[in-house]
Amino acid sequence: MVNVTGVDGKGNELLSPRYVEFPIKPGTTLTKEKIEYYVEWALDATAYKEFRVVELDPSAKIEVTYYDKNKKKEETKSFPITEKGFVVLRFIRAHIKNPGFNLEDDPLLPRRPSFDI
Description:
Layout: E1 6-7, E2 13-15, E3 29-30, H1 32-46, E4 61-68, E5 73-80, E6 86-87, E7 96-104
């Protein structure tokens, strides 16, 4: 499930669309391009083709949080967003419950030219 808060070049919040769920399977490689695609997909669910993703901050990460039944606590791991990407681990195991992925960034979202007023 993805929730995105988009900002303009000055850091002002432009859009916070509803959550959108994506099927991310173990073994999938999440590249910067694929993450930007998912972000635009989330934006289009609220404001179809009104915004586009210009850039993610170079320090942006994907945070994965899950409940580890063996440790009886939530665990969090962060992965940098790169052109090469990272492979989604097999978080669905007997001792792991409810993995969630979070984008640690507010992407820069200019309006598409056809929507400028």
